[in-house]
Amino acid sequence: MSSEPNRDMQSLMSRYGIVGRNEALREALATAVLVAPTDLSVLIQGESGVGKEIIPRIIHDHSKRKGKTYIAINCGSIPEGTIDSELFGHEKGAFTSAIGEHEGYFGAADGGTLFLDEVGELPLSTQARLLRVLETGEYMRVGSSTPRKTNVRIVAATNVDIPNAIKQGRFREDLYYRLCTINIKIPPLRKRQGDAVLLFKKFALDTAERYNIPEPIRLTPEAEAVVNSYKWPGNIRQLRNITEQLSILSESRSITPEVLAKHGITPNSDDDTGIATIGGSNNSGSQHDYEQEIKILAHAVFELRSEVQELKEKLQGNNWHKAPAGTTLPVPLSAQKKPQHSPAVDLDIPTAEEIVDDDTLNIGDMEKRNILLSLQRNHYKRKLAAEELGISERTLYRKIKAYGIDE
Ligand SMILES: Nc1ncnc2c1ncn2[C@@H]1O[C@H](COP(=O)(O)OP(=O)(O)O)[C@@H](O)[C@H]1O
Ligand SMILES: [Mg+2]
Predict the structure, then answer these.
(1) Residue nearest to atom 27 of ligand 1 (CA)
(2) Residue 216: CA atoms inside 13 Å, Cβ hemisphere, count?
(3) In the predicted model, what is the mean pLDDT of the chain?
(4) pLDDT tens digits for range 276-295
């Protein structure tokens, strides 16, 4: 940063679309710029959804490597069986399906930057390979004993408590110290007083612009207080998703605490997670919470089934029955003049009527919406969302990519 740190910070933030007045966030950004010209490895720590992925981009763009390759890898999404070959490459015939040779990310990113996201998910054997390349600049492809040289700057990120993973024998202590030469901590949104409202305004404007919505949504003063005091367990990702949903679905442009409450956003309460869309699970693990959740889910599934039945009847040319009250999502903008159903169950499942009437909502949209909601309910933990949706984690990952869901 030059002699005008505030102006420099402002222009950095606007270049990367970053909003916030929080001092700890600004310090994290300033550190990223400061360490960028060095080749020191950086470890970014912070909860899911706090904005960790912006940091490696800033580091790369402000380094001498900026014209070279930048590769971001999510270590948690690559199956254990193939991760070594994806990272380090393999020789032809290294394993049964290795028909040709493969360069691997460490080869491909030579001269550039490799961002290892969710580094805490790396298997121990891969951690050993990673440590070696960090210490010597050399690695070996799977199935080869010839060392290869690479010049890669490593930036890693994690939302797990690595010291704890070390205690449990899941993470190598030597690798941890090697990775966190520079440690950048991104604070959770609940610790950035006032930033949630600023971010809401930004996402409301962005969404209005993207979807040609004439008037962005705005918070009433009471709703601002709710947004400020809510704990945002899914952090900025959750706030962005909610703001986008409200921008598109809310009938009124003025968002009140009542509207927020329908989306599970309630004033600061004992509900630690804040996830109240279904049952308000608070991680206490009490039997009561689970029972409540199961009841609501069972009710929702029952209603969904009756809607599908009605949809079938409609498609078969039978008389159309109005969907039972209590299962609707707020009326989409495109359908604002229609009478609204009264929501009783806070589940964003469209009625069959809406599915048929609103040609913007197809089966793909529904699936995307269900995936999004499930991710929200499960704190953006793919494993839990996949279990809830009854699909494998890999399938969920592919769908997230296919639908362009930005977690
Ligand atoms: N301060 C911020 N201002 C604006 N958008 C942000 C900010 N921090 C995060 N975001 C957005 O929130 C979303 C989640 O951020 P991401 O970096 O993917 O989180 P993480 O990797 O920590 O889980 C992204 O769409 C990102 O652009
Ligand atoms: Mg991330």
Answers:
(1) 51
(2) 15
(3) 81
(4) 333 333 333 333 444 444 44
Q: Which H or E run includes 335?
A: none
The Cα–Cα gap between 344 and 276 comes to 14
Q: Is the CB of 54 under 6 A from ligand 1?
A: yes
Q: Could you tell me if 155 and 55 are in contact, meaning their C-beta atoms sit under 8 angstroms apart?
A: yes
Joined tokens for residue 82: 């193939």
Determine the distance separating the centroid of ligand 2 and the alpha carbon of 53, expressed in angstroms.
6
User: Does the beta carbon of 240 sit less than 6 angstroms from any atom of ligand 1?
Assistant: yes
Q: Enumerate the β-bridge partners of residue 102.
A: 90
Q: What is the pLDDT of residues 353-389, one digit of tens each?
A: 443 344 444 556 767 888 888 888 888 888 888 877 8
SS3 state at 260: helix
Q: Which overall architecture, per CATH, does domain 5-187 show?
A: 3-Layer(aba) Sandwich (3.40)
Ligand 1 binding pocket includes 19 (Cβ within 6 Å) = yes
Q: What is the pLDDT of residues 105-130, one digit of tens each?
A: 999 999 999 999 999 999 999 999 99
Q: Return the best residue to mutate from 45, 48, 53, 400 for the ligand 1 pocket (most ligand atoms within 8 A of CB).
A: 53
pLDDT at 361: 45
CATH 3.40.50.300 domain residues, the chain: 5-187
Per CATH, the architecture of 194-277 is what?
Answer: Orthogonal Bundle (1.10)
Whether 406 is in the pocket of ligand 1, judged by its Cβ within 6 Å, is yes
Q: Which ligand 1 atom sits nearest the alpha carbon of residue 46? A: 22
